[in-house]
Amino acid sequence: MKNTTKILLIVLISPAIIIKANANFSSDYAGTSSVQFLKIGPGPRANGMGTAFTAITDDSSSIYWNPAGLLNIKTKEIGFTHASLFEDINYDWLGYAKATKWGAMGIGLQYLNYDDIITRDTSGAATGKITPKDMAATLSLAKEIQSVYLGINIKYIYSKIDNSATAFALDIGAQYKQLLDKKLKIGFVAQNLGTKIKYSDISETLPITLKLGAGYEITNNLILSADIGSPKDAQSYTALGVEYFHSFGENTKGAIRAGYNTISKDLKSSGFSGGFGIYYKSIKFDYSYSSMGDLDGINRFGISLNF
């Protein structure tokens, strides 16, 4: 019990320690980090709940949201997400996770394709085209220690504009259940702790983000969740989410979700999200819509299989 308490205290005070050590976490540093695609999360379920997912993640998308959540998977799962963003930009995610004798592991791949961009000289004449792209490959490992779920990601990052660049990063996450109530879960994750990425002669930092979250199971069918996020290159934000499940027979159930995130509060009528899920036996289909105000919205589609 004493060891559990020590680990829990470390989990709870880690965000404050890291933020203190990185005192420049502020909107004054907006635009100072590169490879912003690392902030785009997969999974219509998480996005439908406003991305308030740090404490309750329990599927293959845990690789992105919080690797500690992989320990909630009891067999194997493969999941795919596709999102159409803005101006022909497409985002895809593929994740595989499995339970093991010693814990859990996962492999994730995220890819952002910007389509072709015409290059021009100072007079405006076309000189050719470039095809920018971003990619990250992640290996996840998770293990339970003294009732605390702990996870780590080892991440390889590749980015190409005209020239290409690479970097390595770590994500560190934790989840804890039954802190004050058996229905309460808390979680913490630090994302993109790593090397700088260098384009030609210019080196840029990664978009480090710290998140602290909580989830509460009001009933077996109703979950509330909340996150506080602190990006290094932007203001802190709050995310809130709710999810309700309903069974339609022995093998089928559905879910509806809603959420709000203040990260885009400066965009008119943005921040709200919602979605639904249809689950049949071991197959899950999910959809979410995230409002981006004047920039319209983002549709995400996901399918996963447990086996």
**CATH structural fold name:** Porin
CATH architecture field: Beta Barrel
Q: Report how far the terminal alpha carbons are from each other.
A: 35 Å
Q: Could you give me the name of the CATH homologous superfamily? A: Outer membrane protein transport protein (OMPP1/FadL/TodX)
How many strand units?
18
Rg result:
20 Å
Helix content: under 10%
Describe this structure in words.
This protein is mainly β and 307 residues long. Helices cover 9% and strands 55% of the residues. The protein contains three helices and 18 strands. The chain has helices spanning 2-21, 44-48, 62-65, and strands spanning 76-84, 90-99, 104-113, 117-120, 126-130, 133-145, 148-160, 164-177, 184-194, 197-199, 202-204, 209-219, 222-231, 237-247, 252-261, 270-280, 283-292, 297-306. The strands form three sheets. It has a 14-stranded antiparallel β-barrel with strand order 1-2-3-6-7-8-9-12-13-14-15-16-17-18. The protein has a two-stranded antiparallel sheet with strand order 4-5. A two-stranded antiparallel sheet has the order 10-11. Strand 7 (148-160) and strand 8 form a beta hairpin. The longest helix is centred in the N-terminal third of the chain and has 20 residues, at 2-21. The chain is globular and about 65 Å long.
